[in-house]
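Can't attach files on this board, so I'm pasting raw text. These are the components:
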Amino acid sequence: MKILVAIKQVPDTATQVKIGAGGKAIDTAGITWIVSPYDEFAVEEALRVKEKRGQGEVVAVCLGPDRAKEALRSCLAMGCDRAIHLNDPAWTAADTLTTARALAAVIKQEQPQLVLCGRQAIDDDMGAVTAQLSEVLGWPCAAWIMEESVDADGKNVRAARQVEGGLEVFDLPLPAVISAQKGLNEPRYPTLKGIMGAKKKEIKDVKASDLGLGAEPPQLSVVALEALPPRPPGRVIQGDVATAVKELVRALREEAKAI
Amino acid sequence: MRLTLTDEQQMIQTMAREFAESEIKPVAEELDREERFPHETVKRLGELGMMGMTIPERWGGSGADAVSLIVAIIELAKQCASHAVILTVNNSLYCEPILTFGTDAQRERFLTPCARGEKIGCFSLTEPQAGSDAANQQTMAVRDGDHYVLNGRKIFVTNGREASTALVFCQTDRAKGRNGVTALLVDKGTPGFSVPRTEEKLGIRASDTAEFLFEDCRVPVANRLGEEGQGFKIALATLASSRIGIAAQGVGIATGAYERSVAYARERKAFGVPIGQHQMIQWMLADMATTIEGARLLTLRAAALKDAGQPYVKAASMAKYFAAETAMKVTTDAIQVHGGYGYTREYQVERFFRDAKITQIYEGTSQIQKLVIAREVLGGDA
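---
Top answer:
Structure tokens for the assembled complex are below.
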């Protein structure tokens, strides 16, 4: 079974994000880039499906600038068989729909039976690509999945997601798109062998024209990024306990409207 | 001149850092307190290919270069110095000499399981009367047919209790002095080979340090590494290489203590401001950062020379000496930055301080490193 995993390279979770000059993008100077953690769950699950079936191929795909190759190499080190790097100036301002269309075009060429994504990227938290991708492909989609199992003959996948108070379980015919929620698995560390072997694996560069896609203006463009206003300082309520509690309750009710 | 890591070395560094932060850091304090060997995490290091990093894949290792090993050891030591030394001893003091001096049959049997991390090896040179004076070996091996009969006592063997096999140095011809020293691979369970005790230590308490007793222990001649009389040369060559690993351990200990000090200087307030705004704290942090960077570069340079096939004995001794002294000074200052809290177990710098001391002692004391450096500097004149 061929499985394709779509990943995004995002700033490390510990990054202190600053708004860049121009106010429409973040300042990327000095940022450490990682594979978005939800996408790592997707990579891990793809590898587990392959290992469980004893055969297959896992292909990692990423749309991004040159530096995104590092993210793909991490996926190869974890065990993906090869990678495809969608890298073209035409995609510099790509919104989620452009990204979904580019991924769909690759998927039409590669024809995997299963596509895995993270439930959202942890940078802009948009969470739209999975849905848009399945829409463009016309494939069934199950999002925020906590458990999955592909049946023995590779025709269907059973997937479960957490809902209020329990699990909701679906059956989807393959090919299908699934997005990974935290809890699906515990991603492995790349082994030394995996890291050493990653440079021997293929990362194919693909441009928009290779997929028959032209430059299209994004449907969604960023107008401005605004920093959160600084948090107002806390307030210490003075006085003896009985008076202070009364004042606290009054403030919570009338000012904060929290109770 | 290039001073950057390759993509591959960076990936190894990232993996080691993530593993150390997620898997080792949470257990390090408990292991230290209970003086308990970390079987579980060491097994996982083996599965990741970390226990025989510089050994070729053919012999169960990962085929990485010395620089990769060094960056990985630094990351481990930033969280737990014991893990760093367990790995260094297995890779550099046990696996590497068998790779370099062993026959294929010896590599198959003694190297591969340890390079894979399925078993652990150790290196046994030190004796009660042979520490810095390592050539003064009293342990005797007398040839009897196709066996040696081994008698003597060895001390301070890192990994000694946990190891499945020991690389043991002994005299086969006392009249020849250092040229009578021979290296033997002795399996645990060989009759006459016992481990009477392990040490209780100031630091690196999760790593076991054992005493060996050999009483008419019969070791097959096939287990001899190299030729009779070649043992001292094997020991010196092995120590030169593994010293870079101990230098890396020192860099890691210092870095771990420094990073904790920076975090503390940001959060702890005195006189109304974070202590990091006081110049005397800044002074200490600046000294820490600078000496650590110096130690790190010396250590990476020694490893890079080794990878390039160039002489590295002087570079390794300089790295080990400077990194060990740096680890001791930085951890001392790290406690000072933390004040009274630093002296307690709450902020871990106390553990780093205790762990740092050994780096000035084992695999050649700082004094022996200076001796090696001076000999290299003066050529044959000293």
